[in-house]
Structures are given as structure tokens and as C-alpha cells.
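## retry 2 of 3
previous attempt timed out at serialization; input unchanged, resubmitting
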Amino acid sequence: MNVPFPFVVQQQTMPAGEYVVERVGQGTDALLIRRTKGVGNSAAIVLTTPASGVDPAGEKPALTFTRDENAYRLSTIWESHTEGRMLGRG
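## retry succeeded, writing output
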């Protein structure tokens, strides 16, 4: 997924770029967010909980952000129309 702006994940600023999201282990609530293109490597492992609502991008995987003071904070990772994972404020 392409993110055209820097964003914050668990107090770590991630640069704009192309990212993938992968599960860490089977049946776990931990997800790895990893930058795949661009200069330097950026990655974070986050703990998540099930999200309520629906994917704003329809059936496409999507990342949603909230504006927090002077930065965008990753808030939800959507895998499908109804399956999303919410990040803690950590």
C-alpha cells in the first residue's frame, strides 16, 4: 500500500513510501508494518484488536489515519470490507 506522507506508528515516524502488512505468527494480534521501497528500512510490529465498521476503500486492503497534532497516526489496517484491525495508542 502506498502512503504518500510520513506517519506515526507507536511513537516511531515512518517515512512516506510503499508498505506491506504481514501477520507475525499464526492466530496472533501482532502485525508487522514494513516499508518495501525507498531509501532506508522502516518497520514496526504492532499489537492490534478487531476493528468495528467497514473498510472505507471497499474490498481493497487499506490503511486509515487520524490527524494527531502535527502528524498522521496509523489507526486502522483493513484486510477486507469487514475485517479490520485497530492499533493501540502506544
